[in-house]
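haha ok so turns out i had the wrong file open the whole time. this is the CORRECT one, sorry everyone. sequence first:
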Amino acid sequence: MKCLVCISKTPETTAKIAFTGDGSAFDENGVQFIMNPYDEWYALVKAVELKEKHGGTVTVINVGPASNDVVIRKALAIGADDAIRVEADPQSAMFVAKQIAENAKDYDLILLGKETINYNGSEVGSMLAEFLDQPYVSFGTDLELDGTTAKVTREIEGGSEVSKIELPVVISAAKGMAEQRIPNMRGIMMAKKKPINVVEPVACEDLAVVKSYALPDQKSEVKMIDPENMDELVRLLQEEAKVL
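then structure:
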């Protein structure tokens, strides 16, 4: 089985968010970057578990500049066999999905996190499946393989849903798919010798591109009201409360 895991680089969860003066881009100065947790903890680790159980290979793919090699090397240390990096500045989910699709046509299983923690769009998986003309299951919480059949479980309102799909298939992973792994020293040393294949991007006409970013208004001061003072509470709700 050949498995491809899509990984992305995101700001560390506690990073202070700021944008350039004209609001056209995220200000990366002083920001620590990490592998997107949904890609790492659930998609990548699940792929490694499947390789350990059924055999095969795990390849990771990333769209981005050479500075992304740091997170790619971590993926290799966790257990991926090799990596592909598309030398491009990702401008949209559609652009990323198109670049991955061009390098994903020979894989039996494609995994990615349900979303990235910086955009929270959950778009790449479905777009990728469309480009590849493959079935897609989102927000998977468990995955089992039986030959060429994937059994995918995901949570729905009031219970869970189980789907059986013939490979190849694209699946986005959510909490429950796997447990986080910490790279050990042997994995870190081996990662230095594993190949990263850098490829050029293909042309892609973006249908939606972000023009500018803006921070939300700062939260106003919290006002504490005595529970016995209902008149003041009613006045504040009528005169000062904002309906979003």
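The helical segments are 37-54, 69-78, 93-102, 124-132, 185-191, 230-239.
again sry for the mixup
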